[in-house]
């Protein structure tokens, strides 16, 4: 109850957080991600006018993450979305796998995103963990980024997804990040489709991927302490490129689509999400705590450690 009250007060004072897939699609089919495990959505790109309407309709907004199940750098007008957030005093976050990209990186950086994240799992097994990524494309685009200016408003991070069999690449990855003044964060790889974790509905492909994780979802959840009556994501609303709201950013399947964002107020959406039967089921199973494996990269030097202090027994 106390945690829920804190979350409610935070939303009232600082505003809501939005997770917006401005692209309904991703160049990769990572087996740990819902796109690779469940399948891609029908491709569509959000128009900047729609995004402006979303921010207007939302009212007070504290942060916008311009991705969930996509690479926002596929959008050729990404810089306009970042600039809209910057102009309104809203922090914004983008993440890329540096494969297929159509944005102008120089314009994106000039628009001052709060965080520019490079997400990867090393070179040797890139074509599996980030299927069908190519190391030569990653290296080429990574090199091109070094010539871009570093503005104080933007935190540059390199997020290394740690599996059982890529530990030997950590030293070199850290060296590259340090040499380029990137915040280096090692993320314990997890299985992302929350609905499958909660319902234990794993395919053979899923089980193969899970065997590569540092721990299975069940092993991790067994070690967690968590509130089964409060979820941190109650301070957020997730929507796709059509502005269709889903139960939360952890959930992907079409059965969890709730409606179009413009059909309800923020308060109406939050109430609907909190009372959804699957939301309650997920919290009882610890799915929400399992997914909270790192805190805010911008705010904390050790976002994984901060998260673990809140969720570990």
What features would you describe in this structure?
With about 325 residues, the protein is an alpha/beta fold. The protein has one domain: TIM Barrel (Alpha-Beta Barrel), CATH 3.20.20. The protein contains 15 helices and nine strands. Helix 5 links the parallel strand 3 and strand 4. The model has no long low-confidence stretch (mean pLDDT about 95).
**For this structure, what is the CATH class?**
Alpha Beta
Run of helices and strands: HEHHEHEHEHHEHEHHHEEEHHHH
CATH level 3 topology? TIM Barrel
Architecture (CATH level 2) name = Alpha-Beta Barrel
- The portion of residues assigned to helices is 25-40%
User: How far apart are the first and last residues' alpha carbons, in Å?
Assistant: 20 Å
Uncertain residue ranges:
none
Instruction: Estimate the strand proportion.
Output: 15-25%
Number of helices: 15
